[in-house]
Write a structure and sequence with these properties.
Elements (H helix, E strand, L loop, with lengths): L1 E5 L22 E3 L10 H4 L2 E8 L2 E10 L3 E4 L8 E5 L6 E9 L4 E6 L15 E9 L8 E9 L17 H4 L7 E4 L4 E5 L5 E3 H13 L4 E3 L3 E4 L5 E5 L15 E5 L2 E2 L3 H9 L6 E8 L2 E8 L1 E3 L1
Parallel strand pairs: 1-9
Antiparallel strand pairs: 1-11, 2-10, 3-4, 3-6, 4-5, 5-8, 6-7, 7-8, 9-10, 11-12, 12-13, 14-21, 15-16, 16-17, 17-18, 17-19, 19-20
Length: about 300
């Protein structure tokens, strides 16, 4: 399958993979307008938002990827107090609001005040040839030009609710360091995004994480406890600090076996489930306490 990749905007969760395709030389192509790009990539390129970040003494304009829910993501770190504006061809600049930053993927999340048609996303395919396309932003309210070239993506592997192992082809091997690239299949759907850590992430996962952070008031959820994987399965609680919202619900020695509808087989799985849960929501926990099964509800705090 041939897949197109557009760069300059986003990413999602991955680990290394044993069958990374070998590095290949890339022939760089330059397009000075969307109409000069391969036809299948044009709709996604047109949904790139020019995001201008203004801080005292500094102004930067970067590309952001439009997602459902009036959200957008960029690989560029954004100070919380920065003044943000957006622009797309054919419209005046519009206000943009800072939402948060996902520390794992490295994406900043913002909310657009102007409707921009979101990218069409699809599940991540395996063993694909791609075209890497990178918007080059030259300034505020300036139409970007694009660099693009042919390359390859590796295989995804899925486990732990589709989070732990995603596509993990290093960009320095396959994309020559092109940041924020979007992988677009022949139907025009975005399937993967390149992060600044040189790892590819499922585009659907990036959108999911952005929504979680937005719904969680800028952060993921936490139980504010310490622990480790329990022998025989589950997450065993080692300590519940006095200031933790879990105080009175959990205690040392408890083994968490379920959070809402998710089975918990290890400490890592617990952290994954909390990562994919918005802060400020209630979680129903099933806990093994000695020989008894206990059910409790904990209001999840913000993981800073």
């Amino acid at each position: 399958m041939l897949v197109l990749v557009v760069a300059g905007a986003a990413a999602a969760l991955t680990t290394s993979h044993d069958s990374t395709p070998p590095a290949q030389p890339m022939t760089q192509n330059i397009s000075f307008s969307v109409t000069k790009l391969p036809a299948v990539v044009r709709p996604s390129a047109q949904r790139t938002v020019d995001l201008t970040i203004t801080t005292p003494g500094h102004v930067a304009t970067v590309a952001a990827m439009a997602l459902p829910g009036s959200l957008a993501v960029t690989t560029t770190p954004i100070p919380r107090a920065a003044l943000l504006t957006g622009w797309v061809p054919g419209h005046a600049t519009f206000p943009v609001t800072w939402v948060g930053r996902d520390p794992l993927t490295g994406f900043s999340i913002v909310r657009l005040s102007h409707f921009v048609k979101p990218l069409s996303l699809a599940p991540l395919p395996a063993n694909t040839s791609v075209i890497a396309v990178s918007p080059v932003i030259t300034g505020p309210a300036q139409r970007p030009r694009f660099t693009w070239s042919n390359t390859n993506l590796g295989d995804p592997t899925l486990r732990a609710y589709g989070v732990v192992n995603y596509l993990a082809t290093k960009s320095d091997q396959n994309l020559n360091g092109v940041p924020g690239a979007l992988a677009i299949d022949l139907t025009g759907h975005v399937v993967a995004v390149l992060a600044t850590n040189e790892q590819w992430y499922s585009a659907e996962f990036v959108a999911r994480v952005a929504t979680i952070v937005a719904n969680g008031h800028g952060c993921h959820a936490t139980l504010n406890i310490a622990g480790a994987s329990a022998q025989g399965g589950g997450a065993q609680v080692a300590n519940v600090p006095r200031t933790s919202q879990s105080r009175g619900h959990l205690q040392q020695g408890d083994i968490i076996t379920k959070v809402d509808h998710h089975d918990i087989d290890s400490w890592e799985t617990l952290l994954t489930v909390l990562y994919l849960t918005p802060a400020g929501t209630n979680a129903h926990l099933t806990v093994l306490r000695g020989t008894h099964t206990v059910h409790t509800v904990v209001h999840l705090a913000c993981a800073l």
